[in-house]
Every structure is written in structure tokens, then in C-alpha cells.
Amino acid sequence: MGAPTVVIAAGGTGGHIYPGLALAAALRELAPDAAISFVGTPKGLEGELIPKAGFDLDLYDMVQFNNQGWRKALAPAALVRSSIQARALLRRRDADVAVTMGGYSGIPLVIGARLARVPAVLHEPGAVPGQANRLAARFTTNVATSFPQTTFTGRSARYIGYPLQGFITSFDRDALRPEARRAFGLDDGTALLLVNGGSQGSLRLNQLALGLATRWQDRRDVRILLKAGARTHDEIAAQLAATPGRELIELVRYIDRMDHAYAAADIGIHRAGAGTVSELAAVGLPSVLVPVPVLEHDEQTHNAQPLVAAGGALLVRDDAATADAVGPLLEELLADRDRLASMRAALLESARPDAARELARWVLELAA
Q1: DSSP states of 212-269 as a string?
Q2: What is the dihedral of CA 310, 13, 22, 364, to 10 degrees?
Q3: 25 CB contacts (<8 Å, ≥6 apart)?
Q4: Do 114 and 21 fall into the same domain?
Q5: Span 100-117, mean pLDDT?
Q6: Domains in the chain: how many in total?
Q7: Contact yes or no for 258/225 (Cβ under 8 A)
Q8: Do residues 25 and 132 share a domain?
Q9: Which residue of 6, 196, 242, 326 lies most exposed, with the fewest beta carbons within 10 A?
Q10: 182 and 158 in a common domain
Q11: Cα(227)–Cα(194) distance, rounded to whole angstroms?
Q12: Measured distance CA(128)–CA(315) in Å, rounded
């Protein structure tokens, strides 16, 4: 066989794009001569992130299926048009295999692959299959999941895990922790709580962090690293200025070294996105998980369940995520180092750090 050619659909949000990039890196590691390109739509983050990572990006037309009103009526015609475009680009790239990492931008690629008689792999990032992948799964038998409980009607699925970036898969907490703790100015007697609501942030988690600072205002053995997110950073900065215990919080707009944050932290508070819970398992950070409450199928609660069942995380509902409710849980954990150590061990036991390589091996088998 010559050099394999792989086309990956990874578009819309970082939850689809970053695992796609992790897969591409694993493919290059296993098959250095592989030709890898991406496909997406003009409206997603892929237009910025994929070229920045050094990969070619082809675009096709697609209308989101969750549009309302007259735009929803455009979806069937747009799907036909984009699927024909996908078939043409697969032939132009002389593709051996196509992969979708989920999201509506992957549907045309799977259908186009079926039309072009190219094998296609579908990867579902969440515990509950999204609408787009449920449709795309009708056109391929090669289905991979990030969570063991995920199922597709009428399709067998292979549990692989969530493809993670290299700095997570090579993470060594013990080796990195002294350097990371120095970077945040922490001494041996100070515990660090990492609060991270994602790139856009979570107002609920941000206000929880402020409430905890007020609750702990007389303590000097705990610090809070708060990534407030782009959406609410300025609002939280203004509130922080008037918060008792504000000296306990280090408010940041962006964390350049997430490996430092994970290594320095003793415990975390997070939403329960698929990528987040997969990272927490891989780095072994005991956490309180607060699922987003407005999702149609309560997807983030399902994402959190394996970590909670393993004993590595606690689940708190959004409306209960207050300092009065969460504070005692954290205080009990921080006072019990043996329990924290057992939680870390449980997380690491449940992790799938080789997911990107396992998915890449499957893709290369199909390419052959």
C-alpha cells in the first residue's frame, strides 16, 4: 500500500475539532507519510484552528439541522449539495478513508464516502449520541465511542475513548507538580482548587468560586485558580473586587499551561463536557462536576457518570452549586488526603489515554 490518505470532518466547536487534531497527530505518529486533510463549513471554528495546526481545510455548504423556521427547510437540499461536494473532494484527494468526529459538518462526509465507495469511521465524542451522528451512523458500520455506555440503534459500536492532545496523554503529575506549584506561588501547605467553566466560562461556577472565597476568607491554606471565561470575565472581575476573601482567588482570562494547572491543583470544579471529563480522568484530578442543566438529553450528566461511578468525582446539580452546599464537600475532601489519593487512582484507572492511537490504528486498517 502507498501512503494512506485520510480526510477528517471536525468542525463547529472545539469538542469536535480538538479530538480531530489529536487523531491527526496519532496518524502522523503511526504513519509519517500519511496525507491528512480536514473538511468543514465556513461558519465553525475549524476555519481558524485547522490551518493554524498546519493542515489543509476544504469547505462545503451545510445548514445546521437545529435551525428553526424557514432555515430548517433548507437543510435537506443543503445536505444533498454538500454530500455531492464531499464525494468530489474525496475523489480529488484520492482518499482511502473518511472520518467524522461528530457534529453536523460530518454528515456530508459520511454520505459522500458512501457515494464514493470510501470506508468511513464515525466517532461520537459524548456519552449520548448527537442528532448529527445518529443520522450519519445510518451510512457507515464503523462507529467508535468515547464512553462505554454509548449505544447507537441498529449499529454495533467500538468503545475507544476520547482522543486527547499530546500534553494530556503524556501527563506526569508527580514529575510536573513541583515546577507547576512554583509557577503559581504555592507552598506545600496550600491546597489549590481549579475552577474552569470552559473557554466561554460558566457564570454559575464563577459565582460559586466567589462564594467559596467568601466562605474561606479567614483561611490561608487554600487558593482558587479561576478561569472565568471570555463571556463573563469582566463581570466577574468587577464582582471579585468587592468579594471578601478576594485575595484567595487568582482570576485568569486564559490558562497557557493547562498541564501546570492540572499538576498544581489538588481538586477541581468543572462542567462535564466530554473533553473535560476525559482530561480529568487522564490527569487524575478529583473534581466536583456540575453538568449544564439546559441540554435536551442531559448529556453532561451522562458524561459525568463513569467518573462518579469509579469514585473519582462528585456530581452536583446546577441549582445546588452554591458555596453552602459545595463548600462542606470540598472541605471534607481537602482534609482527607488519603481519599483524594484514592480518587486520583480511580480516575487514572478509568482513563483511556491511548484513544487517539487506537482510533488511528483502526483508520489505518480501513485505509489498507
Answers
A1: HHHHTTT-SSEEEEEE--TTTHHHHHHHHTT-TTGGGEEEES--S-HHHHHHH-SEEE
A2: 100
A3: 165, 166, 356
A4: yes
A5: 94
A6: 2
A7: no
A8: yes
A9: 242
A10: no
A11: 8
A12: 18
> Does an H or E element contain 58, and which?
strand 56-59
223 and 303, same domain (yes or no): yes
pLDDT digits (tens, 9 = 90+) for 33-76: 999 999 998 888 898 999 999 999 999 877 665 554 445 556 67
**Which CATH number characterizes residue 333's domain?**
3.40.50.2000
Hey, what's the cell of 31? 504513519
Alpha carbons 359 and 162: distance in angstroms, whole number: 9
In the prediction, which pLDDT does 70 show? 41
Are β-strands 287-289 and 313-315 bridged in parallel, bridged antiparallel, or unpaired?
A: parallel
What are the residues whose beta carbons fall under 8 Å from the beta carbon of 205, sequence distance 6 or more?
Answer: 195, 196, 197, 269, 270, 271, 290, 321
The dihedral built from the CA positions of residue 9, 352, 160 and 292, taken in this order, carries a sign that is negative
9 and 46 assigned to the same domain: yes
Do residues 69 and 17 share a domain?
yes
Biggest distance spanned by C-alpha atoms of the chain: 67
Q: Which residue has the higher pLDDT, 312 or 294?
A: 312
Question: Does position 242 have pLDDT exceeding 60, yes or no?
Answer: yes
CB 232 within 8 A of CB 219: no
* Percentage of residues of the chain with pLDDT beyond 90: 82
**120 contacts 319 by C-beta, under 8 angstroms:** no
Let me know the angle formed at the C-alpha of 298 by 197 and 321, rounded to the nearest 5 degrees: 45
pTM across the whole model:
0.93
Q: Which residue has the cell 501527563?
A: 171
Rg of the chain over CA atoms, in angstroms?
Answer: 22
The reply to whether 198 and 323 lie within a common domain is yes
Contact, 116 vs 87, CB < 8 A?
yes
Could you list the residue range(s) of the whole structural domain that residue 120 is in? 5-164+353-367
Q: How many CB atoms lie within 10 A of CB 200?
A: 12
Cα–Cα distances in angstroms (integers) from residue 226 to residues 178, 205, 352, in the given order: 20, 9, 27
- The C-alpha atoms of residue 365 and residue 359 are separated, in whole angstroms, by 10
The residue assigned the cell 464503523 is 142
